[in-house]
Amino acid sequence: MLDPLQSLWRGFLSSIPDLVFLAVLFMVVRYIIRLTRLFFKGVELGRIRLENFDRDWAAPTFKILRFLILALAVVVAYPYIPGSDSMAFKGVSLFLGVIFSLGSSSFIANMVAGLSMTYRGAFKQGELVKIGEVVGTVDDIKLMTTRIRTAKNEIAVIPNSSILNTNVVNYSTLAASQGLVLHTVVGIGYDVPWRDVEAMLLLAVARTEGLKAEPKPFVLQVSFGDFSANYEVNAYCDDALRMLSLYSALHASIQDVFNEHGVQIMSPVYTQLLPAPAADQPAPVVRPA
User: Fold this and answer.
1) What DSSP state is assigned to residue 202?
2) CATH number of the domain at 180-260, please?
3) Cβ distance 275 to 197 under 8 Å?
4) What confidence tier does 285 reach under pLDDT thresholds 50, 70, 90?
5) Which residues cross the membrane (predicted)?
6) Exposure on the CB side of residue 198, measured as CA atoms within 13 A
7) Contact yes or no for 233/175 (Cβ under 8 A)
8) What is the pLDDT of residues 144-194, one digit of tens each?
9) Helix, strand or coil for residue 101?
10) What is the C-alpha to C-alpha distance for residues 8 and 14, in angstroms, rounded to an integer?
11) Three-state SS at 121
12) Which fold is adopted by the domain 122-170?
């Protein structure tokens, strides 16, 4: 009964130098990581400036270096782990490595995509973006996934590998400095002079609170339809997060202005305008063209 205990005690005594080495290595790695964190925290706050290095890269760069430091520490510490030279330990390590390699293809793809997006600078937290068919504010950016908060207060979780292969539209990048162009198209009949239509559209923009007077809004005649000419009004705003509400306000202003001037918006297009039916007559059927 004492033989196993004696064997364990002798193994512990013989492993004391290795355990001391592991303890020292742990302390050294811990302080290296702490110093690295302080350095990149200074970069993030602007106290330390690096040429051609964006402050937003500080946090992800620290995470990458921390992972590399820990991986190097594990490689150095492996030979000093008690029992690491035994066949049982090697067998378990090989088994875990095979499992990780078989099940980590998507994990590695999402992780690499997350790192690529960070340094590509496609978007930042708090910005309004469109990723595929999802439009919303960037709520959180993780190494594996990105969370988007939609206008309906829904959270869309998108894998980073999917974002890397999808077109990304960022509405916020130039909104504050150069303005975001809001645009909408209306169809107006050919009997209304185009100069009058442009004037009414510009008046609707001027009535919409939140749209900028400078740069000046403008109107484009984009196409000629069978029954109407299509006009596109363009106006600038400096807050991309208000885009949906500004679109709604602009559409309301356009309807008000055109109704005041007795001009009908030909969308959808009707073949004819019928008078209101009498009380004793059935309502006529208006068929779209």
Assistant:
1) H
2) 3.30.70.100
3) no
4) very low
5) 12-33, 64-81, 93-115
6) 9
7) no
8) 788 999 888 889 998 887 887 788 888 888 887 888 999 999 999 888 999
9) helix
10) 10
11) coil
12) SH3 type barrels. (2.30.30)
